[in-house]
UniProtKB/TrEMBL annotation:
Xref: SUPFAM superfamilies: CRAL/TRIO domain, CRAL/TRIO N-terminal domain
Gene3D superfamilies: Alpha-tocopherol transfer (1.20.5.1200), CRAL-TRIO lipid binding domain (3.40.525.10), N-terminal domain of phosphatidylinositol transfer protein sec14p (1.10.8.20)
Species of origin: Salarias fasciatus
GO CC list: membrane
GO molecular function: phosphatidylinositol bisphosphate binding
Name this protein carries in UniProt: CRAL-TRIO domain-containing protein
InterPro entries: CRAL-TRIO_dom (IPR001251), CRAL-TRIO_dom_sf (IPR036865), CRAL/TRIO_N_dom (IPR011074), CRAL/TRIO_N_dom_sf (IPR036273)
Pfam families hit by this protein: CRAL_TRIO (PF00650), CRAL_TRIO_N (PF03765)
Length: 345
């Protein structure tokens, strides 16, 4: 059975040594053959928080690999150690939940072809050039990289909202490569300066539900905090669209700071923030992350521009991503929430 996968899935995408050149602030791609890169402190943290035992690590990976080959023999997925470890860590080494997350990961691509078809950095260069997102060069004191989003930079007439989702997803794919991110998790800083009615009402609940579903249940990353700053009055309406789809633990990780930078600095210290947010780490550079992603074009082509990994796979009835159209209930919900947005505005 394993022979069906050997030519396609046991190895990770080829590593281009030049892809990481010039980006010394961010770790390069993992090597083809897994070798643990965690510091002793992170090994201890992974043991305590993720139930990861170094002496059992590769045994656990093999157990998950065996489950995939037995239960989903037609699934065209990577099976290398580094890739499968992402899913085990994200689900605290629970084999069944890690397998479900892997299936959700691939099902999300099938359910949302507008986002995942031909997904590579060059197709979202306009989003990167606009300054919609970046990753701050220094992690916080807990070792977590900070994804900075600026939704006010996007105007609905410029390009479809799904292009923003594509750029976010590519960024998350890059961020999850280093083992330290898999253990430490990620922090989001969302600056809502300039967000008005046109941006707030554009995605709608069906789109919001898909985004939240992918981030919560379809991607192997741990989002530890979402810091919202400079949110306008209509943010209550925006959050009303998102909140029904958030798990309780995730909803509790949203922190609203308004324009109070001192409040933000209690969550993210000034030493890692740019001057724009009262920090001491220099000016916000939106180009560095853009260059890093664009330099990894070939890597993403290998990862995403391939045949459908779910072709011929029978998924359980309880799969996360169901249907392509919004239900009548979703539309009714949107009408109510849209009126709430106008009231807040």
């Amino acid at each position: 059975m394993a022979d069906q996968h050997d030519s396609l899935t046991h190895s990770c995408p080829p590593v281009d040594p030049s892809a990481a050149a010039g980006h010394s602030w961010f770790p390069g791609p993992p090597p083809p053959i897994y070798s643990c890169t965690l510091t002793p402190e992170l090994v201890a943290k992974a043991r305590e928080e993720l139930q990861e035992k170094p002496e059992w690590r590769l045994r656990d990976v093999q157990a998950l690999r065996d489950m995939i080959l037995k239960e989903q023999p037609n699934l065209r997925t990577r099976l290398d150690d580094a890739f499968l470890l992402r899913f085990l860590r994200a689900r605290k080494f629970d084999y069944d939940r890690a397998l479900q997350l892997l299936l959700n990961y691939h099902a999300g691509r099938k359910a949302w072809p507008e986002v995942f078809q031909d997904l590579k950095p060059s197709t979202v260069k306009h989003v990167l050039d606009l300054g919609f997102l970046t990753v701050l060069p220094q992690p916080d004191p807990n070792g977590r990289y900070i994804l900075c989003l600026r939704p006010g930079k996007w105007k609905p007439n410029d390009y479809p909202f799904v292009d923003n989702v594509r750029a976010i997803y590519l960024t998350l794919e890059k961020l999850i490569q280093p083992e330290e991110t898999q253990v430490n998790g990620l922090v989001i800083l969302a600056d809502y300066t300039g967000v008005g009615m046109s941006q707030a009402s554009n995605p709608g609940p069906f789109l919001a539900k898909k985004v939240v579903s992918i981030l919560q249940d379809g991607f192997p990353i741990r989002i530890k905090a979402v810091n919202i700053i400079n949110e306008p009055r209509i943010f209550k309406g925006i959050f009303a669209i998102i909140k029904p789809f958030l798990k309780e633990k995730m909803a509790e990780r949203y922190i609203l700071h308004g324009s109070d930078l001192r409040s933000l600095h209690r969550s993210i210290p000034r030493s890692v923030l740019p001057e724009e947010y009262g920090g001491t780490a220099g000016q916000l550079d939106m180009r560095a992350w853009s260059r890093l992603l664009l330099d990894c074009e070939e890597e993403f082509i290998v990862e995403f521009c391939q045949p459908d990994p779910l072709e011929g796979v029978e998924l359980p009835d309880s799969m996360l991503f169901e249907g392509q159209q919004a239900s009548g209930q979703d539309e009714d919900t949107f009408r109510g929430l849209r009126s709430q947005l106008y009231y807040c505005y």
